[in-house]
Amino acid sequence: MGKHKKIHLSAPVLPHVFKALERADMVALSQCKEEEIRPILPCLVRMSLIAPIENTMESTAARKAILKILSGIETVNAMVALLSVDFPTLESDFKKEQQLRQKAGGLNSGGAQEGSILVQNLINGLALEFECSEPLKRLRLLLSEIIYVMAQLKEPRPAHEWYHKECELFDNQCYFEEVADILSIGVSELPGLLSPGELAETLLHFSNAPHLIARIVANQPDYFKEVLSSIIINGEAQDEDTEGGLMRQRTVRTLCLMNPSMALYARHLCVELYRMPGLALYLTLDAAKNAFSSPNSDGSLCCEGTDVGDVVSFVSGLLLSPDQHQRAWFAAYVKSAHKRAWDEPCGLSSLRCELSERLCALLLFRTTHLLPASQVIPATALLRLYTALKNLPGLKLHEEKEVTPLLQLLTCQPPVSAAGVRFVSTGLCVLIACPQLLSAAENERRASEWIKWLVKEEKHFSGALGEWSSSFGALLLLVAIHFHVGQLSAILELVSAALNMRVTTKTANLARIRHIVTHEVFTESVVTLIASKVSVTRGLNAALPGFLPVHCVYHLLKSRMFTRHRVNIKNWIYRQICNSRAPMHPVLPSLVEVYVRSVLGTDGPAPGHPTALTNDPISETEILAVFEYSSFSSETQKRATSSRSTRPRLRQTGGHRLYLRQGGGAPDGRLADVAARGVVEAMEVDDQNTSNNEAVGKVEVRCVLTSQLLLLYYLLLYEDLRLTAPQQQVTYSATLFSQLPIRYLLARAQRDQALYGGLYSALIRLLAHHYPQLCLVEDWLYKPPVAPPSLLSPRTPLTPSSLQRAMSECRSSPGLLLVLLQRCLQLPSQRLWSVAAAPLTASLHYLLEEDVPRTVLDHYVLVWRRLNAMYPRRLWAMTVEGLRAVPHPPGGRRRPLTEDDLVLDPLNVLRCDPRVYRRAPLLQLVEYVLRVYLLSSRTFLAQHQLSTAAAAAEAAAAAAAGGSLALVAPFEEERDKLRNALILTQESAAVQILLESILPDASQGDGPSSPGSLLALQEVQSVVFSYLHQAFIKDTTLAKLVHFQGYPRELIGPVVQGVPSMHVAVGLNWIPELLQLPQQQHRQRCSVQLQLFTLHLTAQLALQNAMPSTLSIARLAVNVVTTLIGVLACEDRVLLVRGSLVPLVTLGRVFPCLLQDVTQLLCTGARLTRAHAAILPAPAPLLYGACASDGVDGAGASSDGLPAFGAENKQEKLGETELKAEAAQSSDNRAASHVNKFAEEDAIVVEVTQAFRRLVVESSMRLKIY
User: Is-cis flag, bond preceding 667, omega within 30?
Assistant: First the structure.
């Protein structure tokens, strides 16, 4: 087919040729040279012989182009002959031999051609047979070798042993072209037998595998990704440690050089599968070289030294990856490759050479110490990468090729910009993380001069950053602080946070950099003075990156350096709190905590100053200045009517100027003195501005909500630590706390926890300890009701005066008040308090009048609940004042109750208008206020005991003989007992008042003739019983105390039925104690009344909770009554018998097993009564006659037997109350007709008889005897 032209035997596949073939661009292929298209001739010949699918002009033109390309190339003739062989027969023989090789004990032990089906009767050697054979036999020879290697690979081998097949056809370069052509055509014609991935894995064990696989893939571009993935997936985790790994590495690199667009895919596959890290590095370096050698859009080449490719970013991403497995995989590779020599070929060596070249290229731009602006970001990335290589895998830097250039780059002077600040911060961290850079004296001197230059130029950098960024000055100051206090591990943590990587430098290697910072640049006094006068960060929030002045002040406070040098930091803390905004910076809560501890001295004494307290607490005036602003908005809206423009502002600062100086620069040797003089001048100016601000009493607040939350946290933490402070401290007044919207601020912190992370939990902890009344469960569950749109729009506007007028007319025209209350529910929080709080509480007594609709009271409670969510403590006091009873005389004046009065005596809440106890909605508010003030009183007493513990102990010790301290502990125990007794007394008194309030009262209209009043009484009782249930569950001792004190017996039944927690009387088993009280503690008559109270309580508990434990208590009560009847005097016995009839019948009805004891007790009572009447001086005919007329003998039994009780149906149906009434009536009748002195005994016998009848009848019906 034309004249033969000599072609290079192993010509590589060029990228543009592969790309043209992949796209079937025949025009581009026709422009290529013959030696360039030689590797893809098998594909082109096959394309020319295949009939086209469609006969279009484009396909015809492409076919002609292919034929034009192939014309004149002699090798094409051999390929055409190869394509003419009988492939179906070859395929059949291939399968037979493959099956034969797979059999156990088959042909694996011999050579490739021994017993082969594909190749038979070989006379000469393999190479000679290959040269002398026709194309079909050549193909059979190659396939036989491939099948043999496939079979050998399936044999078990040691893990790290790499199998290599020596073959003349694959080893000799002279056969390379023919072998490549034959295999390319074989893969194309036998796709079902030779899969690309399996063939590539087999060819890896032959010589010239990379180029051979590249030739085969070049003729089948569609198989590129499959072959590439197969080689990488089957690769090792560390590819440079084995021969097979190196072979795979060279193969993939050859494939990616042929198709550079797939290099990034191959690298991604390596990283994703944690395979072949050396290959990933080589691919990255090859991509960078390709980018360097490729022309730009203007035709010029890329300049050396620029950030070409992504070598730095890729390696940094591997070392600093969030995937721990990925970091460990690459770090293990670096540690293994680091053991090789610098010039030994490997991926790490190539990477270090590339990075070293980039270092030198960056330094070529520098004629002075200045670093060009275009090179700042690449230099920062390079420094960070070297730090990662040094610390994570433990790479040791080369002294000449890496350490010296790295220090020269690090100590360059960048331009004043944000990128320059980042470069300087990174360089400072690199000096600490890589102490090897300071190994030489010249390097140490250079680093010292550079740090001094940083101190001098910091203000210029901070001014360039603006208001919302941070300079490197804070980082430098923090490093100096930690070096001075010896917290070297904290420095490493600081550097790790700045570089966003884990720094593993040993603290013992930081001696040189520590000496530079602490002796040549910063002394301890200079550090303290500078930090105290540093400008606050305006608008400090969590979004600000880097290290800020707040970090410096925090660490200085924590290390007590301010205390050692007597520097007051209070004004700076206050200004920084006022200049904070959301989202809150995470250091601020910790800053407040260490500040409070420094104020109170709870952080321990400073060295050299055991009792010195330098910092002052924030004054109440300064706190109230912040709370002068509206707390219902995050903006700085002040409640006062003064214009904002008239308020003085704090001193304006330009960024974070840490080192204030007057005039220009100074020599490095006098840097510390100049800085100190600048600090002193700044102190004078700052003190003057501070005094002016304090004189005016105004402050500028950047975010009201953030500042108020921080000050609230400060106050609560101060009060918490003040109680245990070693010295007497300033105490904030209760008036200050009453003016703070604590509940509202807490609700905002709960709602916006994403903005105030960490502060909400601390506030909850402190509030639950100091203000438990603000942490009630029902308040957490409360949600403001969604008010429906008002259907009526009254002409009266919603103002305090209109609300007060509507309250006064609520009885005659409740509609107006109802509409105004609905409009109050629709108001926003910031308006509701100012409009509704004062009139609704001051005119509350109008709602106590008769005929006020219930819906008005319900709407009032809803509005009150909303107000309670804003300023609860103020609202509680106003509500108590509004419900106070009318003074006597009515025109007299009385002193209004303050919150201190209510905390000291919570019972003032119940000294209200008596009509409140018949208004259930208002009584719920009173009960709520009572609970909160009881909690307040309990907390106040506990805090008062803690705050006066030291003084009380000193007084007790002084009063003791000889001043011994042995009485201090008993004295404290006595104080605890007295406090607990006072608390129980208050709570039990409140319970007794509430119980008395639910007794029917004729003056309140309670009676059978008024059904509405009875319903109101039942509702009020349910409110009181709900309070009792919560109180008894909270403190079971209170339930015990209340019942030991006693209350009206007619309330026992309702209390037991309405208070579920009354079961504690049975569970805690204190009723036996109530029965066994010493008799001498009471008068005899009172003792009998107490026993009757206990008996009635036992009966009602048995009726409500019939349990085995209740049965034992009931049996004990019956035994006690039996004993008392026999030992009491006549009058007490009569009182006991008459009072115990009803509970005894109840016990007998509930527990049938007690019938015998109860019946015997009733008989005993009747006998004793009869005997007492018999021994009296005067005769008693009436007693015997009355008993006889009722059919009862002296023993209490019927003269006709038990059936007589069943005949009297009327008596069987009488209740307990009717029995008592009937007995009393019969006694009165007999007393009127027969005047004698035994009327009381006569009535008792009748009552016992009726009780006995009732007991027998009910027991008979229950047990179904009759």
Answer: no
| CA-closest candidate to residue 936, choices 780, 774, 777, 773 | 773
How open is the CA angle 359-465-586, to the nearest 5 degrees? 100
Q: What are residue 912's phi and psi, to 5 degrees?
A: -110, -175
Residue 759 has pLDDT above 70, yes or no: yes
Residue 1170 to residues 635, 1165, 1176, 1246, 1248, Cα–Cα distance (Å): 88, 9, 10, 11, 12
- Select the highest-mean-pLDDT range: 474-488, 509-523, 834-848: 834-848
Is the pLDDT at 748 greater than 70, yes or no? Answer: yes
Q: Which of 924, 923, 927, 920 is nearest to 1019 (CA)?
A: 920
Full DSSP string of 530-568? HHHTSPP-TTB-TT--S--HHHHHHHHHHTTHHHHTT--
Q: Which two tokens stand for residue 1051?
A: 């309330």
Give the tens place of pLDDT for each residue, 1040-1097.
Answer: 999 888 899 899 999 999 999 888 887 777 888 888 775 444 444 557 888 888 899 9
Please write the tens of the pLDDT for every residue from 953-1012: 566 656 554 544 455 557 778 888 898 899 999 999 999 999 999 888 766 666 555 566
Cβ atoms 606, 560 nearer than 8 A:
yes
For residues 393 and 396, give the distance between their C-alpha atoms in angstroms, rounded to a whole number: 9
Q: How far apart are CA 655 and CA 664, in angstroms?
A: 19
- Per-chain mean pLDDT for the chain: 76
Question: What average pLDDT score do residues 70-98 get?
Answer: 78
CB 1242 within 8 A of CB 1153: no
Helix ranges (DSSP H) in 308-403: 311-319, 324-337, 347-364, 376-391
Q: Which sign, positive or negative, has the C-alpha torsion 631, 636, 642, 648?
A: positive
What distance in Å separates the CA atoms of residue 533 and residue 537, rounded to the nearest whole number? 12
Strand partners, 629: 638
Rg of the chain (C-alpha set): 50
Does pTM top 0.85 for this prediction? no
pLDDT-derived band of residue 1213, with 50, 70 and 90 as boundaries? very low
Bridge partner list, 606: 609
Sequence-distant (6+) residues with CB within 8 A of 807 are: 817, 839, 840, 843, 844, 846, 847
pLDDT digits (tens, 9 = 90+) for 205-255: 888 889 899 989 998 899 899 999 999 998 888 888 888 888 999 999 999
Burial of 712 (0-12, 13-18, 19+ CB in 10 A): buried
User: Rounded to whole angstroms, what are the CA distances from 1093 to 43, 984, 1089, 1099, 1115?
Assistant: 113, 22, 6, 10, 16
Residues 6+ apart with CB under 8 A from 1083: none
Q: Residues 743, 869: contact at Cβ < 8 Å?
A: yes
